[in-house]
Amino acid sequence: MLLERLRSSSTLPRVPVDLSRFDAILLDLDGTVYHEEHALPGAVELIRRLQERGRAYACLTNSTSSPERIAARLQRMGVGVDPAHIYTAAAATADYVLERFGGQSTLPRVFNLATEGIHDMLDGRVHWVQDENEPCDAVICGVPLNVFATPERQRTAMLLLRAGAELVAICADRIYPSPRGLEFGVGAMAAMLAYAADVNPIYCGKPEKLFFHELCHRLAVQSDRCILIGDNLESDIAGAKSVGMHTILTLSGITTKDDAARVPPRVRPDAVIADLRDLGDAAL
Questions:
Q1: What is the DSSP string of 15-47?
Q2: pTM of this prediction?
Q3: How far apart are CA 100 and CA 96, in angstroms?
Q4: pLDDT, block means (10 residues), the chain with 284 residues
Q5: Which residues contact 149 (CB under 8 A, 6 or more apart)?
Q6: Which one of 8, 38, 100, 104 has the largest count of C-beta atoms within 10 Å of its C-beta?
Q7: Same fold, 2-62+207-279 and 90-203
Q8: Is residue 193 within 8 Å of residue 141, measured between CB atoms?
């Protein structure tokens, strides 16, 4: 077993992987394709090979940004990806709100406590709630550090939730890294609002099944016909396996070789690689 060899060997073996038998190849972004503002080894080459072969693929992230903003970021790294091949937690949130609250003659009534990306994706498709006296279907929650989450707007969100609005959080991340260190994540903000309003939040990002089901719906594929490559045992590997996907763990991000050796069967990846260069010879 590969994981057994990881326990006793300081050198990671190359992993022969046949990606051609899957209908769609899913790539986590942060820690797999890039780190901060730099593409990771093998990422550009793998994405270009997928594009040249015309393979169905998607780049995934728990980012609160829109696919268009992520595509622009990738372009600055020399990775050209059409926004149609990018699925963010914010995009999953937009999909959920439109499906859950949209009707033939009515627009969902939404209070944006999230990001400019959410505004970009939903503007013109929802009615933006402006104050606590309006009817509201959903409060969309992002991180505390964004232009829509001023102290006054946080209070408005709490009042709307207490009046019956649903709390829709982009993801459940407790914290996230920034150039200055760790910051409060969406999950931390959602927990505060949920406690104050006595409601249960809906989470839309990885590792929620909702995220992966929405993605498969967009790609028109069955989840068990997909393979996901990611660096996070919880949000990537466990999340993908919960809907029947095949998985490859890359050690180019937050998971170490020792972490990989200790995982329980329910989150054990089908293969482990050092980084995307190990897929350079994989059949597509």
A1: ---BGGGSSEEEEE-BTTTEETTEEPTTHHHHH
A2: 0.88
A3: 6
A4: 38 64 96 93 96 96 92 94 96 95 88 95 97 97 94 98 98 84 92 98 95 94 97 93 96 88 86 93 88
A5: 113, 114, 142, 143, 189
A6: 100
A7: yes
A8: yes
Rounded to the nearest 5°, which phi and psi values hold at 238?
-65, -40
| Protein fold of 90-203 | Rossmann fold (3.40.50)
């909702």: which residue's tokens?
210
Domain locations in the chain as residue ranges: 2-62+207-279, 90-203
The predicted pLDDT at position 1 comes to: 40
What pLDDT score does 60 carry? Answer: 97
pLDDT at 38: 93
Confirm if 121 and 108 have CB atoms less than 8 A apart: no
**Model pLDDT, residue 16:** 55
Superfamily of domain 2-62+207-279: HAD superfamily/HAD-like (3.40.50.1000)
pLDDT of residue 4: 36
Q: How far apart are CA 147 and CA 144, in angstroms?
A: 9
For position 45, what pLDDT does the model report? Answer: 95
SS3 278: helix
Instruction: Please give the backbone phi and psi of residue 4, each rounded to the nearest 5 degrees, phi first.
Output: -65, -40
Looking only at the bridges linking them, the beta strands covering 175-178 and 181-184 are antiparallel
**Paired tokens of 213:** 């089901």
Closest Cα partner for 136 from 118, 120, 158?
158
Of 219, 61, 241, the residue nearest 271 (C-alpha): 241
